[in-house]
Automatic annotation (TrEMBL):
Organism: Eudyptes chrysocome
Basic residues composition bias: residue spans: 1-10
Similarity remark: Belongs to the dpy-19 family.
Subcellular location: Membrane
GO cellular component: nuclear inner membrane
Membrane topology qualifier: Multi-pass membrane protein
Pfam family, one: Dpy19
Basic and acidic residues composition-biased segments: 21-32
Name assigned to this protein: Putative C-mannosyltransferase DPY19L3
GN (gene name): DPY19L3
CDD domains registered for this protein in UniProt: Dpy19L3
GTP-binding recorded as keyword: no
Length: 725
């Protein structure tokens, strides 16, 4: 097991707080007043200062996480094999393709090796560019080869520094989004500070560097910033076109770098759909965003050689259904309250039915089953019946796919983030309900009122809509939906907590929010609003600095060292004692490291989005089940296995409780009763054979005839398979 240990001594202002008015302040003779010129200069100065602060915070965050990574592992001092082992589980698999491209004789040969890969899955040739989102590794390896940096920078550092550099993009995007929403760059400063001080819950880049989400989330944050700007009113046509282009590029890059892109964008599309139904966003802009999502995903589909999981995605079906339903129901936003509610319910049902029909038709036509394990997992997770499906239970038993732990909220509360977030969320949710009701009923009431009363009615309406502009409305629904996702699945919390920093800082620094609060208690004046807004902002920043700065300094001064001698010994033995063509079987997590460190062929790996691979993995994992040696040997040889690696940490697992250990999941799937004290389902039967991973170590004849132990240490046991005729 990979661990870290204590290191031994060794060698070696403000962009306009309120947005500039669209009207010019002009004298009767047509000359612009000097105070307007002064205001413009102040805005330019404020934007410049805000931009410099954003860049500085982004770079500081990048240096901060890079330093933490170095201090935690002593990355600059450890051996190459130790560096590669530190890329655990699927991280190692992704990095192996970067290494493969770097070591290829030419770029063309490297690409050919990825398109016709026969080392990732034994006895199969697969297209890595189709199956996995590794275009970023391809691009990075090409840049490393063509740029004159080989003499100054090792390939691994070029890779990790790129990921740490993307953290700068991430923080700047969060900063800009908060700035756009509130009108003050101080809001962005607070958002960035919250992101850094809540690092445990906002990112895990320093210890899972190659993970797909670390590539994708910075582009997702850029996309949200661009959408926030797009939804502002009074944009010029050129500004709107440029912003739509930025949204498309960010959406495309996000989709290209993460296999779960379609599910995240489906939630985003759902947010747009809800807001459009309640007339809280401009319909034309929402339509463009639907089209951009479909276009970006289809372009990625082409680049991934028509990946079936993309073609059968719910996002494409949903967006197409919304556009079709909108064409059918042209008068959706006209009529009285009850009339509109009836149309709205019919519209939702129509979209839902069309989505299911289109998705079913696509999957049936193309025989797509790539993502069926996700729906099995969701069905079991939300209580729609118990399941014995091995793949679904594998997800259900992982902590990362469980509910968000309650201690997350106590950590977020220590920085005041959660308290502010809940306060702003409550306030704007109430405002959103009022605005939605007014939008549904205003047309009807407006038609009943005539003459000068219509003007008074519209003025009254402004009091409700001023605190929930389209950009704020979008970010409100965005944070609610992604909050629900994070609460249900802990691994997805990083999509929520980073946006939580943006949303809370916006609410704390928004003139409109404080104006609404003060009006409710009859204390509103423009001057008082600004005094309260900036006072609370400064107090919050001072509190965060005072409480967390010493902790950050202590964290940066704590020095540790990578320490995993058993895995290092295993990898060195494989490289020195087995042929280059040898095929290895074992756990998904370990085999990713075997491929990266040794280049040997694998039987299975952690990239789970393929039905054949899932079935293959379940078969390989019979080495931890109660099966006969003949059965296990036959299964392993059917995949061309030469060596099998058994791990004591899996065979005698104690990390999970009974019923969630890997051996328990295999027993249940095989219809066998589980080990240990506790209940079993009545139809489970005792196995006729002992557990393979335990019994093989006794060197009994039924086992030695098929398996010969060739390596052993405290953690791993490697057996060579006999080659019978």
């Amino acid at each position: 097991m990979t661990t870290v240990r204590q290191r031994r001594a060794g060698k070696g202002t403000e962009a306009a707080e309120d947005q500039p008015s669209e009207e010019k302040n002009v004298k009767p003779d047509g000359k612009i007043l000097s105070d307007h010129t002064g205001g413009r200069l102040w805005n330019i100065l404020s934007i410049s200062v805000g931009g410099i602060v954003a860049l500085s915070l982004g770079l500081l965050t990048s240096v901060y996480v890079a330093t933490l990574h170095e201090n935690d592992l002593w990355f600059s001092n450890i051996k190459e094999v130790e560096r590669e082992i530190s890329f655990r589980t699927e991280c190692g698999l992704y990095y192996s393709y970067y290494k493969q491209m770097i070591q290829a004789a030419s770029i063309q040969q490297g690409l050919h090796g990825l398109v016709y890969d026969n080392k990732t899955e034994s006895v199969r040739t697969i297209n890595i560019l189709e199956r996995m989102n590794v275009y970023q590794e391809v691009l990075l390896s090409i840049l490393y080869r063509i740029l004159p940096i080989q003499q100054y920078l090792e390939p691994v550092y070029f890779y990790i520094y790129t990921l740490f550099g993307l953290q700068a993009v991430y923080v700047i995007a969060l900063y800009v989004t908060s700035w756009l929403l509130s009108g003050t760059w101080l809001s962005g400063l607070l958002a960035a500070c919250w992101y850094i001080t809540n690092r445990t819950d906002t990112t895990r880049v320093e210890f899972t560097i190659p993970l797909r989400e670390n590539w994708a989330l910075p582009f997702f944050a850029v996309q949200i910033a661009a959408i926030t700007y797009l939804l502002r009113t009074h944009l010029q046509p050129v500004q709107e076109r440029l912003t739509l282009t930025a949204v498309f590029i960010a959406t495309f890059l996000f989709s290209l770098t993460w296999q779960f892109n379609q599910f995240m964008m489906l939630i985003q599309a759902l947010a747009l759909f809800i807001l459009d139904c309640f007339d809280m966003l401009p319909t034309a802009k929402v339509t463009w965003l639907y089209i951009i999502q479909i276009s970006a995903l289809l372009l990625v589909c082409v680049l991934q050689f028509f990946n079936s999981m993309i073609l059968g995605s719910l996002l494409i079906s949903f967006n197409a259904s919304v556009l079709i339903a909108r064409t059918i129901q042209k008068n959706l936003k006209k009529g009285g309250l009850l009339n509109r509610l009836g149309k709205l319910i019919l519209h939702v049902l129509l979209v839902l039915c069309l989505t299911l029909l289109i998705n079913k038709f696509i999957k049936k036509s193309l025989n797509l089953e790539s993502d069926e394990h996700i729906f099995k997992f969701l069905k079991a997770k939300f209580g729609f019946g118990a399941t014995r499906d091995f793949d679904a239970n594998l997800y259900l038993c992982e902590e990362a796919f469980g509910l968000l732990p309650l201690n997350t909220f106590s950590r977020l509360s220590d920085t005041l983030l959660f308290y502010v977030y809940v306060f702003v969320l409550f306030l704007l949710t109430v405002a959103a309900v009022i605005v939605a009701f007014q939008n549904l009923s205003s047309f009807y009431f407006f038609c009943l009122i005539s003459g000068s009363n219509q003007v008074q009615f519209m003025e009254k309406m402004e009091e409700y809509t001023i605190t929930l502009k389209p950009d704020a409305a979008y970010n409100l629904i965005h944070t609610v939906l992604f909050g629900c996702l994070a609460l249900s699945t802990m691994r997805m919390k990083y999509l929520w907590t980073s946006h939580m920093c943006v949303f809370a800082s916006f609410g704390l620094c928004s003139t409109e929010v404080w104006k609404l609060i003060l009006k409710c208690i009859h204390l509103y004046t423009s001057q008082r609003t600004h005094v309260i807004k900036y006072s609370i902002l400064i107090i919050t920043l001072l509190y965060i600095s005072y409480k967390f700065w010493p902790g950050i300094m202590d964290e940066l001064s704590e020095l540790r060292e990578f320490y995993d001698p058993d895995t290092v010994e295993l990898m060195n033995w494989i490289k020195s004692s087995t042929p280059n063509t040898a095929v290895f079987a074992g756990s998904m997590q370990l085999l990713a490291g075997v491929k990266l460190c040794t280049g040997r062929t694998l039987t299975n790996h952690p990239h789970y989005e393929d039905k054949n691979l899932r079935e293959r993995t379940k078969q390989i994992y019979q080495i931890y089940a109660k099966r006969s040696p003949e059965d296990v040997y036959r299964i392993l040889r059917s995949f061309g296995t030469d060596y099998v690696i058994l791990e004591d940490s899996i065979c005698y697992e104690r990390r999970h409780s009974r019923g969630c250990r890997l051996r328990d999941l295999l027993d249940i799937a095989n219809g066998h009763i589980m080990d240990g004290l506790g209940e079993n389902e009545p139809d489970l039967k005792p196995s006729l054979y002992p557990r393979f991973c335990e019994e093989i170590k006794k060197n009994l004849p039924p086992y030695t005839v098929h398996f010969t132990r060739v390596f052993q240490n405290k953690t791993f046991h490697v057996y060579k398979l006999a080659k019978h005729k």
